[in-house]
Amino acid sequence: MLLLADRCDRQLAARLEDELDQVGRRFADELASDLPCVNVLIEHIERYRGKMLRPTLALVSGMAASAEQGGAMPPSSLALRVIATVVEMIHMATLVHDDVLDEAETRRRGDTVNRLKGNETAVMLGDYLISHAYHLCSSLEMPAVSRLISASTNVVCEGELLQLANRGNRDLEEGVYFDIIRRKTAVLCATSCQAAAVLQGAGPTIVAALDTYGEKLGIAYQIVDDLLDLMGEEGTVGKSLGRDLTQGEMTLPLIHFRQHALPAQQQRMEAVLGEDVRCRLNSSTGPEAMLAVRDLIGETESLDYARYWAKSLVEEAGSALMVLPDSPARQFLLDTADAVLTRPC
Amino acid sequence: MLLLADRCDRQLAARLEDELDQVGRRFADELASDLPCVNVLIEHIERYRGKMLRPTLALVSGMAASAEQGGAMPPSSLALRVIATVVEMIHMATLVHDDVLDEAETRRRGDTVNRLKGNETAVMLGDYLISHAYHLCSSLEMPAVSRLISASTNVVCEGELLQLANRGNRDLEEGVYFDIIRRKTAVLCATSCQAAAVLQGAGPTIVAALDTYGEKLGIAYQIVDDLLDLMGEEGTVGKSLGRDLTQGEMTLPLIHFRQHALPAQQQRMEAVLGEDVRCRLNSSTGPEAMLAVRDLIGETESLDYARYWAKSLVEEAGSALMVLPDSPARQFLLDTADAVLTRPC
């Protein structure tokens, strides 16, 4: 389950594994319905569960924030577990709805809900997940945390809508790209860390530090995700690839290419992609076009540019944590940020 | 805005109109984004706003519950308005997602979001509305109310998933039909009434009475909605009709027909609908098939049966209110239930 189970403190790893198991059980218990047709769907999407990055961020941030208080306050495990479950449910909802948006067929080496049961069921299943996330969150009886979580999902939806509004916009500015990924991906990571710190009663400096850490890590994560979508191998990554280009969504290497590649390279790219990149890549020549795009990008510094951005953001994420006292939990968060750069999927 | 502005107490009507105006403004204010591409969508769906049934139920239930306490406690207008806005946002989200589910093209005489901007944007806009509803709800700092609202949306999603699982099931049992419409429609009406009573600090008898009233009214409302979808005129109703049949969803008159019509009538219906009702009704002969279905249903008592159910439920809704003291607000709720039976759209 963990990004770095082999490298981190053994006691922490054991506790985290136990906590994540409990999160998994709570996830399933909360979503169980009296309707068999609903339970079949829940069982299906449980296969989507992957690295559990967001619950991990919440749990370990809670531990790190608690360490900051010299252990004076015992970590409120139950509430932390609730928040970890809530952010996983929200993330799962975004995956299910994203698959509808992307017309994706594969997710974690299995069929997507939309492929299996149709878009309609995928839309409603996503709604069911969102609703249960808020329902569970309100059981904490901490309106400030509910407000934090829902403010975060407001921004996630804005990010998705901004991305949709820019589909097919080949002149997407770098600033808008960063705004999209900050909203659609990074904010939920930031909130996972921040809400956990709030739950532990951490002071404003620590809350802000964990918020910054989560946001920087989240942006880096999405840049790497976009790199994998462009350059990865489907067999390794385990989900449909080339989706960004197929949907006409510009990512960092392509934005850089468009701004910095030589005129001859730009022309060759235009020739490969044609007028509407989506039509071209959905056609029978799609896989060849994808390879040609990769070759062209590979000739330039655009991939390195994106990797450099990811690396810088991971460093900034780590720096933000320096206001926290040294602890195995803080070290785990630092290692997690590093692992974003080398993740295979 | 009101179902029965001409019949109800003038003072109450004036107050309600003012309250609904404020709900409308709060709705727009809460959804305003720093992203122009989001605001364009919000402006579009504000045209969807119709009768505002659910906010009306919440506001007037709050008044009726407050009257029960002999006016000892002033109605907490701000909190009531928040709940009224929240239930309208949730309802709007279900409309936007329903239109994706139904592939609908028209809503309140305008284009649906999915027709105008694609399914993807409609999915995300619905999510944005849901998220903002919970965000606003948590501003009340009353976790019990947040829990009530999110428990309600859990059930709404179950109802939609149960309906989807039964698409094309021509042997749908009456009990399952009632379970679907109770969940997908009635529960949010019930919660609108119930949450308002809870906010006013009403006792358990009054809370339960308003809950029952809302649920019975909601079931009746959906039966009438289904009757309009089958028998109404598009020009009067203002949205795409015949959607239930086109999507292979059985409603009360058709379930009754299938169980009680003469064998010859059943055979004629089979001949009209063919093996897959959806394909048949989506074909060029769709409008003719729809007329033939109407004629056939009209020969039987199936429409009267559905109308009888709606009427009985409205009576039960009214009976539930008898534990509340007489007040203009209670009278308004009784009249609103009656109006469900005669609504043109």
Give a description of the structure.
The structure is a homodimer of 345-residue chains. Chain A is mainly α and 345 residues long. Chain A contains 17 helices and two strands. Chain A has helices spanning 10-31, 36-46, 53-68, 77-102, 113-117, 119-138, 143-165, 174-199, 204-231, 234-237, 243-246, 252-260, 263-273, 277-282, 286-298, 302-320, 328-342, and strands spanning 106-107, 110-111. Chain A has a two-stranded antiparallel sheet with strand order 1-2. In chain A, a hairpin with a 2-residue loop joins strand 1 (106-107) and strand 2 (110-111). The longest helix of chain A has 28 residues, at 204-231. The relative contact order of chain A is 0.12. Chain A binds chain B through residues 33, 35, 37-38, 41, 93, 97, 100-101, 117-121, 123-128, 130-132, 134-135, 138-143, 146-147, 150-151, 153-154, 156-158, 160-162, 164-165, and chain B through 33, 35, 37-38, 41, 93, 97, 100-101, 117-121, 123-128, 130-132, 134-135, 138-143, 146-147, 150-151, 153-154, 156-158, 160-162, 164-165.
Question: Can you write the helix and strand succession of chain A as a string?
Answer: HHHHEEHHHHHHHHHHHHH
Uncertain ranges of chain A: none
Question: CATH architecture of chain A, please?
Answer: Orthogonal Bundle
Mean pLDDT of chain A: 89
Helix content of chain A: over 70%
Count, helices of chain A: 17
Distance between the termini of chain A: 13 Å
- In total, the number of domains of chain A comes to 1
Oligomer: homodimer
| Structural category of chain A | mainly alpha
Q: Kindly identify the CATH topology of chain A.
A: Farnesyl Diphosphate Synthase
In terms of DSSP E residues, the strand content of chain A is under 5%
Any idea what the radius of gyration of chain A is? 20 Å
Strand order of the largest sheet of chain A: 1-2
**Largest interface: chains, residues each:** A-B, 45 and 45 residues
Quick one: overall form of chain A? globular
Q: What's the level 1 CATH class of chain A?
A: Mainly Alpha
